[in-house]
Specification:
Layout (H helix, E strand, L loop, with lengths): L2 H26 L20 H13 L7 H4 L3
Length: about 80
């Protein structure tokens, strides 16, 4: 296999995956949304949406708020 065939194959696979992601996005009909969580350069949490979701579910179910250490951190 020559270098050019390998290069074009890799590019074709990348293009095919990008088209597949685009078609999936169009068929799903939802806008692209950012992820939650992560840390900034100083190590502080950027968001605690997983904890917020757990708090909302606990409130709906009439249960106490989650007490996991990750949910105690505030940005």
């Amino acid at each position: 296999m020559t270098y050019s065939v390998l290069l074009f194959s890799a590019f074709g696979l990348f293009a095919l995956s990008a088209v597949g992601l685009g078609v999936g996005l169009l068929l799903k009909g939802k806008p692209i949304a950012g992820s939650c969580g992560g840390v900034d350069a100083d190590g502080r949490p950027l968001a605690d949406c997983l904890c917020e979701r757990a708090r909302e579910e606990a409130a709906r179910a009439g249960k106490p708020e989650p007490t996991e250490p990750a949910c105690e951190l505030k940005a």
